[in-house]
Here is the input.
Amino acid sequence: MTAHLAADFEKRFPGGPIIRAQLKHPTDVFSITVLFGPSGSGKTTILRCLAGLERPEKGCVRFGHETWFDAACGIFLPPQQRGIGYLSQEYALFPHMTVAQNIAYGLTDLSRRERRRRIADILTLVQLSGLEDRYPRQLSGGQQQRVALGRALGRRPRLLLLDEPLSALDAATREQLRRELRRLLLKLGIPVVMVTHDRVEAMALGDHVAILDYGMICQSGPVHEVFSRPDDLAVARIVGVDTVEPARILHVSDGLATVAVRQIQLVALAQEVIEGDVYVCIHAEDVIVERGAAAQSSARNRLTGCIRTLSREGPMIRLGLDCGFPLAALVTKQACEELDLREGTTVAALIKAPAIHLIARG
Amino acid sequence: MDWTAIWLTLRLAALTTAILLFVGLPLAYWLATSQWRWKFLIEAVVALPLVLPPTVLGFYILMAIGPHSPVGQSYEWLMGQPLPFTFQGLLVASILYSLPFAVRPFAAAFAGVDWRLVEASWCLGKSRLQTFFRIVVPLAGAGILTGIVLSFAHTVGEFGVVLMVGGNIAGVTRTVSIAVYDEVQALNYAAAGETALFLLGFSFVVLSVTYALQRRVPVL
Here is the structure.
């Protein structure tokens, strides 16, 4: 049987929403659970409750067979006794200590020799060898982040809690560290619960995701599934589904549902227990754009549309199409140039049936 | 120059500062971190000596430690001698009088320490006490030094409270400020001038050294 971090608690702040958390996270195999939601949705509070930095009013937190918190029995373990690594958003490096001293700070129960070796190991792991005598103010943001991570990892925590681990970095460093972080965490095999409001970060780092809104976890599951198949409109907005339009199911046959969005008919995979009024959800990256009006073809959904807006989005161009309803699409800059796309150009938009997700309405 | 008075004053100031450090650091840390709703009452009490005339404060201290009060009676029963008009009585008065000059800078320095560093230390397994000495105190160093210097200097310079509680007994309670006053009353301007100049020079040196040290504390 796998051991779990199981949390089910309520925390209230005067004047704020009640924060309710229900989480289950395996602790004997590596995986990353992401708490995802807009600012103020209570992500950080949940993480702080898991760390023991906040005390919830109700419920309990268990880690395997240990009870970290139980409101009914009055049990509350302080952070010192939880054996966790906690990384706050601003890293909180001790400014009066060098890199090596920061990492050594949590290692006082080791012998002098062991400690020196552990520090060297950590410095190699986070690629900071040679910087051990620097002070935090002499480091770049990315280096500070790695010192903080190294400091938390030095004690070999049983659970790592990361609060927006990359948000304080500039875009280039963030992208580089995002790639490194997952590899590093995987190598160590320490289970991670992480908070982020960045969709790319959640998708790149997470295995599981819990979507938070107004202090409630409204959907959780494997990252890809939650992001592509939100349960309701609120989740669709939070995970950033680009096109959400009201529609009506016309008929269902052979596992396919035909829906009408305004005057346009689309074919989607039929989902159980959904009928009548729905919302269609389409991610911009699932829309393929071709030049010219839609010809007859085997593709399930081939729409003719007119480009209303074009805007740069990193290496991609975001198109706002009018296909009888507003539809967002993402194309590469190269494709945009090759197809000579401009405002007013008529294009064909192709969407595969599985890429159209339906949400019950009403 | 009245070396007896100078020595007595320095001894009084050093002892007062040492005890204020011992009492003031925990009190200031509590004031800086507590969420207790009635905390402002304690803050007001700590700040009282800033606004009360020294004679009023001295009067109340004299009443509180006098032979008719429970405190004075128990002290006399324990130690075999009364508190008023003794060095020990003067010490009690000095501690109360200089309390805000220690506690307020301490508390301001503690409040300036980033709380996230304290939490980070807890999460690294360090107890509250270890965190206090290894993170909070080093980072509040400049403010703690200010509090030490201010309470020392303030004790050296006190006059009204000393006169009320200690009187003017040579070698027991006659501090420098009272010695200077005595010389002036006796029209002994040369002796008063010497002692005054010494006090001026001493204070200036202490403050200069403090500010020089504070400049060397890196801005973190």
Q: What stands out?
A: The mean pLDDT of chain B is 89. Chain B touches chain A through 17 residues (CB under 8 Å). The two ends of chain B are 45 Å apart (CA to CA).
